[in-house]
Specification:
The complex is a heterodimer.
Chain A lengths: L3 H29 L4 H15 L2 H12 L4 H7 L9 H26 L2 H9 L4 H30 L2 H7 L9 H10 L3 H28 L2 H4 L5
Chain B lengths: L10 E8 L4 E8 L4 E5 L5 H9 L6 E6 L2 E5 L4 E2 L7 E4 L11 H6 L7 H14 L15 H14 L4 E5 L7 H18 L3 E5 L2 H7 L2 E6 L2 E7 H6 L4 H6 L4 E7 L5 E3 L4 E3 L11 E4 L5 E2 L3 H6 L3 E11 L3 E8 L11 E6 H7 L6 E4 L6 E3 L2
Classes of the chains: A mainly alpha, B alpha+beta.
Amino acid sequence: MDWSPLWISLATSVTATVLTFVIGLAAAAWRQRRSGISAALVDGIFILPLILPPTVVGFFLLLLFGRNGPLGKFFLTFGATVVFSWPATVIAATVVAFPLMYLTARAALEQVDPHLLQAARTLGASEWRVFREIALPLAWPGMLAGIILSFARALGEFGATLMLAGNIPGKTETIPIAIYFAVEADEIHRALAWCGVDVGISLVLLAALYLWTRQRGPLRAGWGHR
Amino acid sequence: MVREERREVRLEVEIEKKLTDFDLDIAFRVGEKPLSVLGASGAGKTMLLRCVAGIENPDRGRIVLNDRVLFDSKKKIALPARERRVGMLFQNYALFPHRTVSENLCFGIEGEDRASRDAKVTSLTSRMHLGGLETRFPRELSGGEQQRVALARALAIEPEALLLDEPLAALDTHLRSQVETHLQNTFGAYKRPTLLVTHNIEEAYRLGEELLVLARGKVAARGPKEEIFRRPPSVEVARLTGCKNISRAQANSDGSVEALDWGCQLQVANAPAKTPKYVGIRAHHIDFAETSEAKMQSENVFPCRLSQSSETPFRITLFLTLDSRRDISNQDFLQAEIFKEKWQRLRDKPFPWHVRLAPESLFLMAE
């Protein structure tokens, strides 16, 4: 059996999760300081990939990154084609998972008592220190939920990935796509095997998270849940 | 001998800010003596502190701390909170829940080297009676301990002014006097502009030396606390400082005053400067003439009857009606507050009782 879909899926999901975490957190932190119509508009754009069918998202991405798309042309100047390449799987997964990270990060940051941030400022802390040492650690339990959701969403991504990255075995074929084409080719056992792999990954992920939060100790990781 | 350099410390505040219900418009100075800002909930007290700390910015005005301009709307200066060196004690203490006591104390001085940090933490923990709690987390502390940590954390940065938002409000009653003493000692040693806001009359009186009464965003009175309590300049200040008995008044040509709501003519000790419109007396200043001699000799003695009473552990509040105004409505009762011992003597005496409104306890108000 060719294991490449497993490695492609893992590499794609991990990379996409890291990207959504960084971008989602930055966007949420930025959004926290804004209000009004422009912020609401930006919110709408950020959340859109969650509401739209993945195929629609994939099609938009294809228009953006295709040979005649603005971003596609931009990458072409470096001699790079995005469409039907491994980075395309990452882009598709990131865009689709982004709203989940953004929304949970925003909710988690908004939950932090503003008095704590103000207290930190009166104690002389820079905005960056306030964010890194107060807001982020206190929002962490919520952030963690965002990371899990994003990873799960990236791992399961199918529609947008197929549109933008296609199905190139050993290159862009992720587990969900492998399952789909296995079923289509009537290879039920292969499809079942990949489903089993997906279930396995999910269980391992959950177990790792559980152990990790426990190891960090209830005082720091779970202070908010007492 | 080293000559002690004495530099005058002061915080000058002169700000205007539009709030939803009213406008904040305050000007005052604080020196070494702690200033209590007393006001009802929603009078703009907390907003005042937030403006000084740099958490909010006023619409107009100036805030100067010693020689540093913290805010000046004309010169477009608005120092961010982190550069103001103003310590703030938040009402809910705002301790960082994910940091231990010593990590909380260190937060503001993390730029300093380890030895200096350790020395400061050691000195603060002993001064604030926090020894042995260094590795605890805030939620493992009692309310009083949390407050001391918050105060120590604010003092660690050696702020040039200290702001306290309702410092005793979140504490249980039995902890209050203990914390109060501790705060008084801290202020005594600190000797920099200290501003505390509260809606609690006793807290304001005990913790501050000077008093500022704030009503709907404006300064209603400012001065030594004893003076404001003895002679409130207006009905508003009288009410805010806890005066229960206020009557409309009219001056007579012989120097006495007619209390229109109480229905009696009163001799007053201090001749009014302006035409008085109101007269007031604090509930605990109302006395009773118990012997027939006292009834005959004293001024301002009036026959009265008891309408209602309400008890607290050590005192009792009596709602009295003067015989001359038996027909008046409920709100025109005279409220007298006496100790239980006196109540024991008084309660069995037949009506009418004789209430005495001592001329030196009465105060007149022009507005």
